Amino acid sequence: MPLKSRITGTGSYTPETILDNSDLAKKIDTSDKWITARTGIRQRRVVKGSETNSDLCLKASENALQSAGIKAKELDLIIVATMSGDQPMPSTAAILQNKLGAKSAAAFDINAACSGFIYGLTVADNFVKSGSYKKVLLVGAEVNSKFLDWKDRATCVLFGDGAGAVVLEPTGGKKGILSTHIYSDGSMWDFICLPGGGSNHPPTSKTIRDRMHYIKMKGNETFKVAVRTLEKLVLDTLKVNNVKPSELAMLIPHQANMRIIAATAKRLKLPMSRVAVNLDKYGNTSAASIPIALDEVVREKRIKKDDYVMLEAFGSGLTWGSALIKWG
Ligand code: COA
Predict the structure, then answer these.
(1) Do the domains 178-326 and 4-173 match in fold?
(2) Which one of 164, 200, 213, 291 is separated from 60 by 20 to 30 angstroms, measured CA to CA?
(3) Which one is the CATH code of 178-326: 3.60.15.10, 3.40.50.10260, 3.60.150.10, 3.40.47.10?
(4) Domain coordinates of the chain in residue numbers?
(5) Catalytic residue among 57, 63, 114, 156
(6) Is 242 considered catalytic here?
(7) Would you say domain 4-173 falls under CATH 3.20.20.70?
């Protein structure tokens, strides 16, 4: 039997501070009614004081390592999927490696925005399947609140902070990650972007004045592409694995918008009881949304051995991707 990778531990962490829709309605021209109806989001978590992305990573990772029953020093590789790392250089994964004391682990970040966890899973899965690494920690973590324009009601109501982590190890059996699929279309790069701070627009007083260091989004255009793309993606992923939609025990979608999640579930004819939803509590936590939701369904024992579990995401790039797992 060829090697596969298997998720042997999950963990998550979200900051304590809760910002609910009514808090936002006091600061900008919005309402709980609009946000709930258009997105499904009721509240989000935000970091406080000096709490950083790698701090969130550390707590989620410690939970995942504990659930896998392994020590940080046993790790061979750490990947952090993020678009809101501690600083542009070095990688947040390197900072996490130090905080964990994971001295034997190589460490790097992946940026595929909201699809980052699926991209990271694809890379981690391939390292494990090839026999290169035996114990890989993959974290999706975001501190989006530091990159939001709190005067732009079209974006600031959508995002939140948090982190989720998984440990991957090899297996020779039939269970584990069956397939991963990643895609991108850079022609729509400006649908969701953060234009300032890179080599194209290095930070100057003008880029700050022009509010270029914040997330910008063409929400409606993105919404339409997301719905269309995800419907095809989930059906294709099942087809490749010869699994029927009715056999799917749990869909764990990226948590951007309840209407997008519901449209995907409808296409699969899945009842919402078989769909993981937590955007009401956390908003869109970008690369962290899938591993946080996965950790929740594992801890709530909503998935069991041999279940088919699908993960799917869509985000800036544009990027999108999916994974089918036979749990256990
Ligand atoms: N409160 C109140 N009104 C708001 C608002 C807010 N927070 N944000 C926008 N509006 C207004 C707009 O100004 C617009 O008003 P107008 O008709 O007078 O111009 C109206 O609501 C409709 O705006 P629109 O952008 O067309 O709404 P929408 O139904 O598309 O919902 C999103 C907006 C962002 C919730 C939705 O488009 C979305 O979720 N997009 C996809 C996000 C996504 O998948 N991203 C990928 C992963 S990050």
Answers:
(1) yes
(2) 213
(3) 3.40.47.10
(4) 4-173, 178-326
(5) 114
(6) no
(7) no
Strands 43-46, 17-20: pairing is antiparallel
Please name which of 254, 182, 191 lies closest in space to residue 225, comparing C-alpha atoms: 191
Q: At what angle do helices 219-240 and 258-267 cross, to 10 degrees?
A: 30
What pTM did the predictor assign?
0.97
Residue position matching structure tokens 């397939």: 179
Active-site residue flag, 284: yes
For 255-297, the pLDDT digits (tens) are 999 999 999 999 999 999 999 999 999 999 999 999 999 999 9
The residue whose CB lies within 8 Å of the most ligand 1 atoms, and thus the one to mutate among 32, 220, 284, is 220
Residues 148-169 have a mean pLDDT of 98
